[in-house]
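step 4 of 6: structure.
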Amino acid sequence: MERKVYLYDTTLRDGTQGEGISLSVEDKIKIALRLDQFGIDFIEGGWPGSNPKDMAFFERIREVPLKHAKITAFGSTCRPHVAAAEDDNLRALIESGVKAAAIFGKSWDMHVTDALKTTLEENLRMVGDSVSFLKSQGLTTLFLAEHFFDGYKANSAYAMQVLQAAEQAGADWIVLCDTNGGSLPTEIYDIVKAVLKNLQVPLGIHPHNDSGVAVANVLAAVQAGATQVQGTINGIGERCGNVNLISVVPNLQLKLGYSCVSSEQLQQLTQLSRYVAEIANMTLPNNQPFVGNSAFAHKGGIHVSAVLRDPKTYEHIEPEEIGNKRRVLVSELAGQSNLQAKMEELGIDLSLERAEAREIIKTIKEREFQGYQYEGAEASLTLMLLEASGKLKNLFSLDSFKILMEKSASHAITSEATVKIHVNTEVVHTAADGNGPVNALDNAMRKALEVYYPCISKMHLTDYKVRVLDENGATAAKVRVLIESACDGEKWSTVGVSTNVIEASWEALADSIRYLLWKEGCEEAKNLVASEARVGILNH
Amino acid sequence: MERKVYLYDTTLRDGTQGEGISLSVEDKIKIALRLDQFGIDFIEGGWPGSNPKDMAFFERIREVPLKHAKITAFGSTCRPHVAAAEDDNLRALIESGVKAAAIFGKSWDMHVTDALKTTLEENLRMVGDSVSFLKSQGLTTLFLAEHFFDGYKANSAYAMQVLQAAEQAGADWIVLCDTNGGSLPTEIYDIVKAVLKNLQVPLGIHPHNDSGVAVANVLAAVQAGATQVQGTINGIGERCGNVNLISVVPNLQLKLGYSCVSSEQLQQLTQLSRYVAEIANMTLPNNQPFVGNSAFAHKGGIHVSAVLRDPKTYEHIEPEEIGNKRRVLVSELAGQSNLQAKMEELGIDLSLERAEAREIIKTIKEREFQGYQYEGAEASLTLMLLEASGKLKNLFSLDSFKILMEKSASHAITSEATVKIHVNTEVVHTAADGNGPVNALDNAMRKALEVYYPCISKMHLTDYKVRVLDENGATAAKVRVLIESACDGEKWSTVGVSTNVIEASWEALADSIRYLLWKEGCEEAKNLVASEARVGILNH
């Protein structure tokens, strides 16, 4: 049985209620385009009645050619004792120029009497009148029953009357919201089943993740007969977020046999998740189901050898189906078959002799014993493999650096770094300030090298982590620095280890630049740059 | 109906399979103590047969007095054609000295024939023989059926035979594992129900989160009759992690009426989650259900005013039940009673005026907004409270420090710190080398102050952690430094925040010494030390 489940994305509206999430109009347009490509059916763009930024989005999006998605505006029912046709909020929906509108209304009796401070009858009038008005204006109309599950538990008869008022007024969809996110799958299943006995209009589900079971709530609702899911990309949203569509879609499509998007579109899932995270400037957890960086990463030795023989042994789906990939973690727990698999994955073609491979594994183990951790720093691993097989050009090397920090009771701390770096036959000697010692060093290195390798200017650091390895040594202990860098949307991580946090940072920073130069295919420094230009830049 | 559900924590074993997770023996002991306090029934400490670190944990933990939890060792059944009593792996379990052991075995026919490369009959022998052997040695024995749900779907008759072999051999618990994390709640419910028709032994569930529904899978299993849950704190673990016990416990206890821990223990939930994250040096997502920093944070204007009138309007449970808090404008009364409770806990006796208390709460909030985190640094909180009420003597103050680091290609990096510190009316000016900038600064400070406050020589630093607060800024971002110090067996933690790791470290180091001096009751510097002795020491 294949049945269509419609996807309604509210990343651009409910998603932006999440703490720390803020999207410009330009960001929203970019995300809408990607959602359209992915096959989302409804894209909720904002609440035109609530702020000018949302109104600007609806103006801009009209000129953007979308292939499939229906842009939808969000709003509420009319206010008590105001006719729908006279309500500013509803008029703003019409003026936004959309073809579909979603309005929420109360379905929990307590909220009607205590929050809206009106009668249960007046609320039914508001729901019916608002839906009728939008329909009369030719809009596809979705009615969102706020707090429906809590309302149904408190007063199921009234909650049903609210839905019936929307249905009788001609709503195209009725959507049941678990606004507080407190419901559990079995309740959702039973209530959706009960509702469907008394309604003809297609039903949607809009859950929040406060109990950590929002994805399961969607599956329960769909198994009970709901045919629309409202959620956000990566589950962003107020408090614990809305349901994560990134987890919902592969579960529905690959496991339960429902149809949401095409197989080709499903292969964009991982990229979509990371793209939205990038634009919203949020860090994705590595262990995010389906699309996380670790979602198909295997560490334990038994797991690794089994997965290499037959992926089904330790993978619930094929990562390629959703555009993710298998990763074998090279670590103390694993051996030679890992190395071969790893090199293929990293795109390094080294035909190693058995003895060479053994030698490399020995080096990896020694370095891991010293505290290096390559599973979180695959760019450093790549460099090590290339170096071990003599395939890495030495494009720059350190002569020396100095860092001076000064702090007095009355002044903020200052950090200055000077570096001397060999490039070709020259020695570049320059200096830079920074927010701290590592930042100063990073600034000085870039300043020295950008002249020779302009691609460095496109790269930036996206994460910096320090981990103390041996606690008993405390500030004299060994530390591991992990640095994540990005360039043109691609990310890589490097590692450095030392008892000195600055030396460890230097290693990781240098690896980060060396990896970029290898990726970009830089074979030698640009000696063509006029000395004067160089001097000019270095002294800026 | 209240029914006990047993909690089995595998943070220290399966959790450490997670990418980037690495725990020292000391870390594991600390976490075990907290798990015990929280009321966890079984604490799986490691796999004694697999590596020396795990064996060291079992040796150490024997000397630690636990109130409630049973320390459990993990392993596998004996190998094909080897008697259980002769198997090294099983012998290592016995030698670890635990009273409970959990062994996994195959229950998916494909894994028996293709991975173990033995017969289905021999696998049944291995399961039965291994369980019998552990029971004969007096151990509480848990049998973990690996890949049970996939195995049951492929060949339910054989999967059941495996369980029956374990039951007949006397297993105390049988635990069904969703090893690949691909199962959905309805399948879990149906299969657990079916299994329970044919077994008498109590049943546990061990799910992974690859489909994003592990918490719901636990609820389904428990609703079908399982009475033990195996998971990890914060859901750490291989790939997408194990099920998150932090979400499981409040759902079972507050929503479904099962009993796991006491109400008082449940109030430690948020702290437990954050404590383990700190030790594992992992960043918790703000939107983590129940315990996240945003889990009860209200952003939308409508929500905030409604929540202030009646929390039930937009909160599914009361945050206090799990030790989290609402983040709206907290009423000053609630804030003050918290403060009073906290001061009692810290052993500070300050009879504060209403206005003073308000002022202190304001300061704490401002500093938390800047990135200070007092939950992990109660010594700094104590100092702040003492200072705010004028009860802290100023025993030393910074005039200035300088740090110089030099590194050349041919030499190891050197770090030198000079400090000028005011003590009484004098200015001490001295210098020291160190393994790194923070260590050099630490050494210089001690050298300057030990002459006046000899107790400083007894104190040493036991942990030093750096956390980047705003990941997007990378090396220019704000960092939080947490320092743990110890003296005569007592430990305390302090915090510093700055965009400069050295400045943040200075703050935490200075707090660490100030706290010691307060604890030791130092009222003033020892001016009795002869000037000459001082000079001698300062120049050593």
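step 5 of 6: annotate
 - The two ends of chain A are 68 Å apart (CA to CA).
 - The CA atoms of residues 145 and 465 of chain A lie 45 Å apart.
step 6 of 6: archive
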